[in-house]
Amino acid sequence: MTLSTAHRYRATLRTPPLPCGHRDPILCDTAPRGPSTYGLGAAELHAEADRCRARGWTDAEIAERLDLGAATAA
User: Fold this and answer.
1) Do 73 and 42 have their domain in common?
2) Do 24 and 58 share a domain, yes or no?
3) What is the rounded CA–CA span in Å between residue 34 and residue 11?
């Protein structure tokens, strides 16, 4: 375990297990795949998309990860 993964591992220990038994959705094959709102509101999600663009992400990369359509509909 590296220093960068140790923080994530400790955080998963504080969360309840998923229905499959895992605590970290990255480790779970049954975790939903595709774009997500990550529980952010529309303004927060669009601000995150802007931050990603500022870091050099393409619109396709952002659309692959962030569900901006769902945030607009909310």
Assistant:
1) yes
2) no
3) 23
